[in-house]
Write a structure and sequence with these properties.
With 435 residues, this protein is α/β, with parallel strands linked by helices. Helix content is 34%, strand content 22%.
């Protein structure tokens, strides 16, 4: 029987098989890192998707390559190509889907190794995307391939996807697929996203996000006679001072019941994403800007909010500060533009996918699972909001704080342990009796 094959001696044999593939999971991670899928602009998506799809097709998966034509960012130069692979089990049953994004952020400065060499050493794989999240993708592939190699029978189906643009919102990736039913029942029942949130932790969801642009409007004048104009930069300075003096202290007092990590992220936060005002910078061309009073100054706000907060209130408290300045400074003028937003997401701890991962973590690691939530959003938001599928969490190897850092790496032992946990959880979900 399937349940017997996935427990007891069958489970131990499966785990030994995964142990034996330790070098293979490292090699697969390194191979994925060597495909530089930098976003933006969306480099090398197609070769990465096809590399992954061809491997899975050789193992009996039905593979689809799905370009998000018309989506934000898609072009003939940078096609947004997603890969979805599916393998059927024996008879009717649920579908467990492992979803990983293939895009990575630019490497930036400060590396002591080649960010796209996929170096392996000291029990680690190094490179941009090793942790976030090509190591998790590789672990999920090894987990499913090991189930197949072990000859374990299961009902239903298993899917593996490699999707694009998570680092820029996921709208040409999981969101686009979710709009077309790829993350909804009856096609899919359980989703595991192998983001790097520690091998002993199940990530139940994430904080909400509201991005906006504040433009302060002044009046242009000659820089030698600033009293004839109204400086938008000084107006923005007054707004920033209000945030420092009034809003930041309020945000620091707000705490959530969500198990957000690290602990500092259990409060509401606000980041100044970018700021520009006045004449354009001259760059390397040299010369001087014109002598002008700045008549425009723009600030992009990145506000992360809690399950206990409402987005309307989050927005209103910024509006209130701006309106207060209009009263205090009659020449102050502004415009506020919403850029994008996503509400907080939290899967309940008694959900089937959480319970299955909890049991698998305790079996493999010998310690109770931790429940955490992410400080930033990831593609669970689209599975829940667009796909209306709520049995979805993030679980994968890797250390969250290493994501987007120089000399990013992932521990090979962590990938092996997580592969065992993913395999055990998948079999549990596939064989669970309908409630």
């Amino acid at each position: 029987m399937a349940a017997e094959n996935s427990s007891g001696n069958g489970r131990d044999d499966l785990f030994r098989r995964i142990d034996d593939r330790r070098d293979e999971v490292a090699d697969l991670t390194a191979a994925l890192i060597r495909i530089p899928t930098i976003n933006p602009p969306g480099d090398a998506y197609e070769p990465c998707a096809r590399f992954l799809g061809e491997r899975l097709a050789a193992r009996g998966f039905t593979v689809e390559y799905l370009r998000a034509e018309g989506a934000v960012g898609d072009s003939d130069r940078y096609p947004r190509l997603n890969m979805v692979a599916r393998i059927e089990g024996d008879g009717a049953g649920p579908c467990v889907h492992f979803n990983s994004h293939i895009d990575v952020v630019e490497p930036g400065e400060g590396w002591t190794v080649d960010p796209f060499a996929g170096d392996v050493g000291e029990g680690r794989v190094y490179g941009r995307g090793a942790c976030d999240m090509k190591g998790g993708l590789a672990a999920s592939v090894i987990a499913v391939e090991s189930i197949l190699d072990q000859g374990i029978k299961f009902p239903g189906a298993i899917e593996i996807s490699g999707t694009v643009d998570e680092e820029s919102g996921g709208y040409a990736g999981v969101a686009w697929l979710a709009e077309r039913g790829y993350f909804s029942p009856p096609r899919v029942d359980h989703v595991i996203i192998p983001e790097p949130l520690y091998k002993d932790a199940v990530c139940l969801g994430h904080r909400g996000v509201w991005w906006s642009e504040v433009e302060v409007r002044g009046r242009i004048a000659h820089g030698s006679m600033p009293f004839l104009g109204v400086s938008a930069i000084r107006g923005m300075g007054a707004f920033l001072a209000k945030i420092e003096d009034e809003l930041y202290p309020r945000l620091a007092q707000r705490r959530t019941r969500m198990p957000v990590i690290p602990d500092q992220a259990r409060q509401s936060t606000l980041n100044f994403n970018s700021l520009h005002g006045g004449s354009p910078e001259q760059g390397d061309e040299g010369g001087f800007p014109s002598a002008l009073v700045a008549d425009r100054c723009r600030l992009v706000l990145d506000r992360r909010y809690l399950l206990e907060e409402a987005e309307d209130d989050v927005r209103q408290e910024v509006v209130d500060l701006l309106d207060a300045l209009k009263v205090e400074q009659p020449e102050f003028d502004y415009a506020l533009r919403d850029l994008w937003s996503v509400p907080p997401t939290l899967t309940e701890p008694d959900a089937p996918v959480v319970q299955a991962l909890d049991r698998a973590i305790e079996t493999v690691l010998g310690t109770p699972a931790r429940h955490v939530a992410s400080p930033g959003t990831y593609d669970q938001k689209h599975v829940a909001r667009v796909g209306h599928l709520h049995d979805c969490v993030a679980y994968g190897p890797g250390i969250l704080e290493l994501a987007h850092q120089p000399d990013e790496y992932i521990e090979i032992d962590d990938m092996v342990a997580s592969a065992k946990i993913m395999a055990a959880a998948a079999l549990n979900l596939l064989n669970r009796s309908p409630s």
